[in-house]
Amino acid sequence: MLKTNYMHHTVYQLEAGDLLTDCEKGSYAVFDEEEGWWVVKVEGNSANPLSTDPVESRAAAFDILARHLSH
Predict the structure, then answer these.
(1) Which contacts (CB < 8 Å, 24+ apart) does range 33-42 have?
(2) Which of 12, 22, 49, 61 would bridge 39 by S-S if both were Cys, CB 3.0 to 4.6 A apart?
(3) Which of 15, 19, 17 is nearest to 37 (CA)?
(4) 4-60 pLDDT tens trace
(5) Backbone phi and psi for residue 33, each to the nearest 5 degrees, phi listed first
(6) What global pTM score does this model have?
(7) Dihedral (C-alpha) 19, 8, 43, 58: value to the nearest 10 degrees?
(8) Distance between CA 13 and CA 2 in Å, rounded?
């Protein structure tokens, strides 16, 4: 798990075996699953995806996050 600061927000880049429950509440997480890359906002015991579909790359996931944070 890599913890970074992106646009003044905490973002975790998860690897296989990392858990969303290890991320701070209110942070964001980017991770890869079989169907593609996801970016979520961590809300305690749950995580809300910022898009309805996975994307093809980590860079595309960060593009979604950047659009979300620029609002």
Answers:
(1) 37/61, 39/64, 39/65, 39/68, 42/12
(2) 61
(3) 15
(4) 999 999 999 999 999 999 999 999 999 999 999 999 999 988 999 999 999 999 999
(5) -125, 175
(6) 0.93
(7) -50
(8) 5
